[in-house]
Specification:
The protein is built from seven helices and nine strands, in the order E-E-E-E-E-H-H-H-H-H-E-H-E-E-H-E. The protein has a five-stranded mixed barrel. It starts with 13 loop residues before the first strand and ends in a 5-residue tail after the last strand.
């Protein structure tokens, strides 16, 4: 169960639950993110059309996404709806829940490395991360991307910071994008081959790869964490390469796409 820092969901929230009882007039589902809480979905909120048999729509042990209509602490459940959700909202919410399940597992691994329980992990750092970053997974992502400073800045103790950062870097891969551009570069110097080699070599790095398409055309492939960054690196790399060639009385031109 992925835990939330709030005791109850709020009206309008999308909640994830597991159906545990189906009756002729409605269904009950245990809430995955609110321990000890359940949702009741009346048959009128199961589908926008006429429901002859509720079991055609919900069944025991089914994972559902529902919208909270009313919160009723006295009855110990929330009234919820299955029909007041678009399919894209349902899909995104389920994906979010699965990601948070992964984050909780990572928190549990971090806790074990410190000989602590998952309950202790939530009490000592989990709820703090959720309050600060919105959810657990965002905290682990930042730790993977930025290192220990992301958690140290919000007052988490060094032992937890080191453990969480190590687990994050081992288990979370930073998503990357790759884009391609082309340069036509020509040198008229006697040592023109060396000038071209120097120009291309000056931009190669762990994020920039250069390939010969067929002189004078060369492919520049850039890998980065997002498209704006990749486009910036590609443009700067092409300008630098062309600049070196032009400084040696050559010429160059950048193309975002390969000419046919």
């Amino acid at each position: 169960m992925v835990r939330m820092s709030n005791e109850w969901p709020e009206e309008g929230d999308l909640i994830v639950g597991t159906v545990h009882k189906v009756l002729s007039y409605g269904a009950f589902a245990r809430l995955e993110e609110y321990e000890g809480k359940e949702a009741f979905i009346h048959i009128s909120e199961v589908s926008s059309g006429w429901v002859k048999n509720i079991r055609d729509y919900v069944r025991e042990n089914q994972k559902i996404v529902a919208r909270v209509l009313r919160v009723n602490p006295k009855k110990g459940h929330v009234d919820a709806s299955l029909k007041r959700i678009r399919e894209d909202q349902r899909t995104r919410r389920m994906q979010q829940w699965k990601i948070e399940q992964k984050a909780e597992k990572l928190l549990e691994i971090s806790a074990k490395s410190l000989d602590k329980s998952l309950d202790e992990a939530y009490d000592e750092v989990g709820y703090l991360i959720m309050d600060e970053f919105g959810d657990l997974y965002s905290g682990f992502e930042l730790s993977s991307d930025e290192g220990e400073g992301a958690l140290t800045a919000i007052g988490i103790s060094d032992d937890w910071v080191q453990s969480i950062t190590a687990v994050a870097k081992k288990n979370i891969s930073t998503p990357e994008v790759q884009i391609t551009g082309y340069v036509d570069i020509t040198s008229y110097q006697p040592d023109g081959v060396e000038v071209i080699r120097e120009a291309l070599g000056s931009i190669e790095s762990d994020k920039v790869e250069v390939q010969c398409v067929g002189a004078p055309k060369y492919r520049i492939m850039v890998t980065a964490e997002d498209y704006p960054t990749a486009e910036k690196v590609l443009s700067e790399s092409a300008d630098k390469c062309i600049g070196i060639v032009e400084d040696s009385d050559g010429e160059g031109e950048f193309h975002r796409e390969l000419d046919n």
